[in-house]
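Structure first, sequence second, as always.
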């Protein structure tokens, strides 16, 4: 898949919850592994597919992010879901610092 982000991704690992509505309008929730994050979006690994264009809410212990699913691909051990944050919703380390975070920019 072609890289579409203009911002550098930070590799990370942490458990978060993702919430969305399925095609029949029922509320759904799953535990997800946070794979990477940038100021404008993130990638999660989940056990179930989440439809592209679904509006989602990602919760972590002290807050939440909202956004839209841009892709969902199955790869070997799960579904990788890319989420673009809603306008005005941006990630920063001071707001949420994932359990394991690798800022690739700091390695240069």
């Amino acid at each position: 898949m072609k890289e579409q982000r203009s911002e550098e991704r930070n590799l990370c690992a942490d458990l978060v919850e993702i919430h969305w509505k399925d095609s029949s309008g029922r509320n759904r929730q799953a535990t997800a592994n946070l794979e990477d994050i940038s100021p404008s979006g993130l990638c999660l690994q989940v056990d179930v597919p989440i439809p592209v264009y679904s509006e989602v809410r990602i919760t972590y212990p002290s807050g939440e992010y909202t956004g839209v699913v841009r892709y969902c691909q199955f790869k070997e051990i799960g579904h990788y879901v890319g989420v673009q944050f809603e306008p005005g919703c941006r990630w920063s380390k001071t707001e949420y610092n994932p359990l394991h975070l690798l800022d690739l920019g700091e390695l240069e």
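Margin note: The chain has one domain: 10-87.
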